[in-house]
Specification:
The chain is of the alpha+beta class. It has a single domain, classed as archaeoglobus fulgidus dsm 4304 fold (2-Layer Sandwich), CATH 3.30.2170. It contains five helices and eight strands. A hairpin with a 5-residue loop joins strand 2 and strand 3. Helix 2 packs parallel to helix 3.
């Protein structure tokens, strides 16, 4: 593991370098395990949680938590530098590595096309998906009201496809899906809808969130 930046100047340089390393492409392997992560904060510490499930049947396989001092200040646009160090360290503690890791946040649907899923995905060099509860960047039309309905999320400047706005349950608010690294937008959308159960957020993300709260 490389040392994470602790200054804005260092962080900007890392962002520029990582942005060029992010690759949006079709998966090159079969997905047997899917993971999800969540991060909380308490008393100046970062509490990270990762859980792993079999795929597509979503049998629970493993969970890990980690508490770590936060070294980077809170600055919009640089939140990955607060959450990333704990997630990277925790990932390497897993006995069963997921084939795809889902984040409660953005992938390339980000002003710099480097949300937390893209940032950490490029560092770990694994397929990642951003599954956010709200739009950060991009334009879209509201999708239909039925489960599985979706609309395109496109870059506000270039019109490039960033991901999808996906309805995971009938008549609930949609989630905002974007590929993070080493996966296509369509594959990211398909995995999220297959992981969605009786609630708005996919089951692995819900489990990771409960795990991080418990760890506090």
């Amino acid at each position: 593991m490389k040392k994470w930046p602790v200054t804005i100047k260092e962080a900007k340089a890392v962002q520029r370098a990582l942005r060029n390393k992010v690759k949006i492409k079709k998966l090159n392997k079969k997905i047997n395990r899917v993971g999800a992560c969540d991060v909380g904060f308490k008393d100046g510490d970062c509490i990270a949680a990762i859980c792993v499930f079999s795929y597509p049947d979503l049998r629970f396989l493993e969970e890990k938590t980690l508490r770590r001092k936060v070294d980077f200040p809170y600055i919009p646009g640089f939140l990955s530098f607060r959450e990333g160090p704990a997630l990277e360290k925790l990932f390497y503690q897993l006995k069963l590595k997921p084939d795809v890791l889902i984040f409660d946040g953005q992938g390339i649907a980000h002003p710099k096309q480097l949300g937390i899923a893209s940032h950490v995905g490029a560092i770990l060099n694994i397929p990642t998906i951003g599954c956010a509860k709200s739009r950060l960047w991009g334009d879209y039309k509201e999708p239909g009201v039925k489960r599985g309905d979706f609309s395109n999320l496109v870059d506000s400047n270039s019109g490039k496809l960033l991901g999808y706005v996906l309805r995971t349950r009938d008549n609930v608010k949609p989630v905002f899906i974007s590929p993070g690294h080493l996966i296509s937008a369509k594959e990211a959308k398909d995995i999220i809808i297959s992981c969605a159960g009786q609630f708005r957020l996919p089951e692995p993300i819900r489990y990771a969130h409960r795990l991080s709260i418990k760890a506090k």
